[in-house]
Design goal:
heterodimer; A: about 90 residues; alpha+beta; Mth169, Chain: A; 3-stranded antiparallel beta sheet; 3 helices; about 30% helix; B: about 230 residues; alpha/beta; 11 strands; about 25% strand; PurS-like_sf (chain A); ATP binding (chain A); nucleotide-binding (chain A)
């Protein structure tokens, strides 16, 4: 069954201290060509019936993301591309 | 008649006991409210306490906002019920859109726990009328996600309308924009504050008695408010 993947990211103008901390750690790995890192959240939703992108958008807008500080995108993926299928 | 002030307990609330104690020391009757019960049991005001409601899963306050008791509180707050959100309670009020903006990870990523000087900027709210504008108070701050953010237009509007209720003085513990520690809604009945007034109501356990003013304020407000 296809799943809906919701990607939630902090808006570009919101400071991401976690991303900065990761970026600051990269030189210790010998990585010097990364300009910035931003951290978000990926949520996979499986519907009981057919996947419903509009419904997923509503869920994302009301609960999964806080539109004051975050943007989100919604897309369909085949089951074998999702984390649940790999585990 | 003694005012009845509700204190909500969510799964993961930590400071509901201290909030109820502060209400009692201020001279009101604390009424414990349960997140799963939509009834407010006739309370005259509500405190949303600090802690980690629903484990702070997803975002702080995001799931608590949909608790049965919150749906009733949101409606009642729009009708003028005084509501004070402390720390996690402030986060819940922002998630519920009763207050603008959001609280994000402390900029330095450390949990900050210390006694903090605040300047009360607005003594015109239901929860701060016992203070003088400009008064400095000392109460504990303890948060990991207390960095207040909002867009510039919202921040300017808060300042212009006198809705910044308190600011951090002598060092900003979390990176909050414009040193904001507490804000209110347009009507002044809903206040969100990141530091913890309920921990500063007794000499034995707090750094001062300055926190008590928030709880005596609401009693003063209720006496003056039309029934």
């Amino acid at each position: 069954m296809p799943r809906v993947v919701v990607d939630v990211m902090l808006k570009p103008e919101i400071l991401d201290p976690q991303g900065q901390a990761v970026a600051n750690a990269l030189p210790r790995l010998g990585v010097s060509d990364v300009a910035s890192v931003r951290i978000g959240r990926r949520i996979e939703i499986e519907f009981t019936g057919e996947p419903d992108l509009d419904r997923a958008r509503e869920i994302a807008d009301k609960l999964l993301a806080n539109p004051v500080i975050e943007d989100f995108t919604v897309r369909l993926v085949e089951a074998d591309e999702t984390a649940g299928a790999r585990s | 008649m003694t005012a009845r002030v509700g204190v909500v307990t969510f799964p993961g609330s930590l400071d509901d006991g201290d909030a109820a104690r502060a209400v009692r020391i201020a001279g009101a009757e604390p009424v414990r409210l349960w997140h799963g019960d939509p009834k407010l049991h006739g309370v005259d005001a509500v405190v949303l306490p600090g802690g980690f409601s629903y484990g702070d899963y997803l975002r702080c306050g995001a799931i608590a906002r949909f608790a049965p008791v919150m749906e009733t509180i949101v409606d009642a707050a729009r009708g003028g019920l005084p509501v004070l959100g402390i720390c996690n309670g402030f986060q819940i009020l922002c998630e519920a859109h009763l207050l603008p903006g959001a609280l994000t990870r402390n900029q330095h990523l450390h949990f900050r726990n210390r006694d903090q000087v605040l300047r009360v900027e607005s003594a015109g709210t239901a929860w701060t009328n016992a203070f003088q504008a400009g008064q400095e108070i000392l109460i504990p701050v303890k948060n990991g996600e207390g960095c207040y953010v909002a867009d510039t237009a919202t921040l300017d509007q808060l300042e212009a309308e006198g809705r910044v209720v308190a600011r951090y003085v002598g060092g900003n513990p979390n990176g909050s924009q414009r040193d904001i520690a507490a804000i209110t809604n347009t009507a002044g009945n809903v206040v969100g504050i990141m530091p913890h007034p309920e921990h500063a109501v007794e000499a034995l356990t707090g750094p001062s008695l300055d926190g008590l003013g928030f709880f005596t304020s609401v009693l003063k407000h209720l006496v003056g408010a039309p029934a």
